[in-house]
Design brief:
globular, mainly alpha, two-stranded parallel sheet, two-stranded antiparallel sheet, 4 strands
Length: 178
């Protein structure tokens, strides 16, 4: 049975703290923290609906991807977890398979993939890019702008990173159970 978020678990201070963030390189970022529980999204819950669901590209979502999306929905606002911790909690896959599932997430922001970071507490990837600025990896197509956008989204939830891209407060690391 998939893990389903039944209530929003978040720290009141993270939601009440509405930070104004200047958007870099014209990447639009909403100025207020969005309550994902209020997000209007068609997210299939029944096995029948999941078996017939197709993404905008016409692809089916695999059982592993559903497990990753279900678990990711349980990550509280103002907290982050790692790609590795997700596969450990699910008892399946690898950090790369979790990253691949999230890179193809058809339910963003309802499935908050921006709350996943690397095991060494580095910002990790976002929209197929890895890292920021001089630390960006992935060839010429990787500008680092997507990870900057991820950092801005997390900052609005009260999660901050060092200039080098590492989580500033390890107490915000959330380890859930599958």
């Amino acid at each position: 049975m998939p893990a389903i978020r039944t209530e929003l678990h978040s720290t009141k201070s993270a939601i009440d703290r509405r930070k104004t963030t200047t958007s870099r390189a014209s990447i639009p970022v909403v100025e207020e923290t969005q309550d994902l529980a209020d997000c209007k999204m068609n997210y299939p819950l029944s096995e029948k609906d999941r078996n017939t669901f197709k993404t905008q590209n016409g692809k089916r979502v695999t059982p592993h991807q559903w497990a990753v999306y279900d678990f990711t929905r349980t990550i509280p606002c103002g907290r982050v977890t790692t790609y590795k911790d997700i596969c450990v909690a699910l008892r399946q896959g690898s950090p790369r398979s979790v990253g691949s599932a999230l890179r193809n997430n058809p339910f963003a922001p309802f499935v908050p993939c921006h709350r996943i970071i690397a095991s060494n507490l580095y910002i990790g990837g976002f929209f197929g890019e890895w890292g920021t600025g001089a630390n960006a990896r992935g060839g010429q197509k990787n500008t680092g702008l997507q990870c900057n956008r991820k950092m801005e989204m997390l900052a609005k939830e009260g999660v901050t990173f060092s200039v080098e891209g590492y989580l500033s407060d390890e107490s915000l690391l959330w380890i859930g159970s599958g």
